[in-house]
């Protein structure tokens, strides 16, 4: 489904990703944990070329891209196969919730407005925002804005959904409503890669967990094994400190 092979990323002299190999199966939910600065965001952003990896191969279904010779068509292929939810929502402030979700469908997927509206309304309802569709981002809470961002990603029906610390900007009392929407999306068989610091959530939602540090994967394993019987001392330390 998704294969990352030997992904390297340098920012100038700074070697941020040092040969990441990761496979994600169809319908699988992989959670990436790791201290700040370990390269988690850079890895997610490399998958859709928001950052161009210095080298490595990214394969999503039938799109296989060698980072050293990626064409515009390759990059477009990866962008169409993915959708990302960011820490800071990144909604269009001048569009209401409905139009924030519709715009990807009309502009990227080239659906007509009627179809785009039907799909978008359905998905906003699913994330619990049926009564907020005509609200602008400034009129919504952080949790509601992030649910609009999730709806926008879902509407694109990508091969894989990428979440980069989706609850890190939220006030504590708004975290749960967003996590439970992500949980619901996960339970519907979507393929997802989620970066989070919420360990309880990670344990609930993940099929597999990956720990990154200093641009390498320290350990990865099935969720129960990762939390109850990690192989690496570093993982025990990380879990111990974070819990
Ligand atoms: P994480 O998401 O795990 O906190 P990041 O992927 O954001 O880590 O960052 C990993 C390292 O790469 C950090 O040292 C960060 O400063 C550096 N970095 C990230 N983005 C850039 C950039 N655009 N330019 C230069 N350095 C960057
Ligand atoms: Mg990050």
UniProtKB/TrEMBL annotation:
InterPro entries: AAA+_ATPase, ABC_ATPase_HisP-typ, ABC_transporter-like_ATP-bd, ABC_transporter-like_CS, MetN_ABC_transporter-like, P-loop_NTPase. Residues 2-239 form the ABC transporter domain. It is a peripheral membrane protein. Keywords: ATP-binding, Cell membrane, Hydrolase, Membrane, Nucleotide-binding, Transport. The keyword rRNA processing does not apply. It comes from the Bacteria. Its EC number is 3.6.3.-. One of its GO terms (molecular function) is hydrolase activity. Pfam families: ABC_tran (PF00005). This is L-cystine transport system ATP-binding protein. It comes from Paenibacillus brasilensis.
């Amino acid at each position: 489904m998704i294969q990352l092979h030997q992904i390297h990323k340098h920012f100038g002299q700074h070697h941020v990703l040092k040969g990441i190999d990761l496979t994600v199966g169809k319908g699988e939910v992989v959670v990436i944990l790791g201290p700040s600065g370990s390269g988690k965001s850079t890895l997610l952003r490399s998958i859709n070329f928001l950052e161009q990896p210095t080298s490595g191969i990214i394969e999503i279904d039938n799109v296989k891209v060698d980072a050293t010779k990626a064409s515009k068509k390759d990059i477009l292929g990866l962008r169409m196969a993915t959708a990302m939810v960011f820490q800071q929502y990144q909604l269009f402030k001048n569009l209401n919730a409905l139009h924030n979700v519709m715009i990807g469908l009309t502009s990227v997927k080239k659906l007509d407005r009627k179809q785009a509206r039907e799909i978008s309304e359905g998905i906003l309802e699913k994330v619990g925002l049926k009564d907020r569709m005509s609200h602008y981002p400034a009129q919504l809470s952080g949790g509601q804005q992030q649910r609009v961002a999730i709806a926008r990603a879902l509407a694109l029906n990508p091969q894989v959904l990428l979440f980069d610390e989706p609850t890190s900007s939220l006030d504590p009392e708004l975290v749960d409503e967003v996590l439970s929407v992500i949980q619901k999306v996960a339970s519907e068989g979507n393929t997802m890669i989620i970066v989070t610091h919420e360990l309880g959530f990670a344990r609930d939602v993940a099929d597999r967990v990956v720990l990154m540090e200093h641009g390498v994967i320290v350990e990865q394993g099935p969720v129960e094994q990762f939390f109850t019987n990690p192989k690496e001392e570093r993982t025990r330390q990380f879990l111990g400190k974070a819990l």
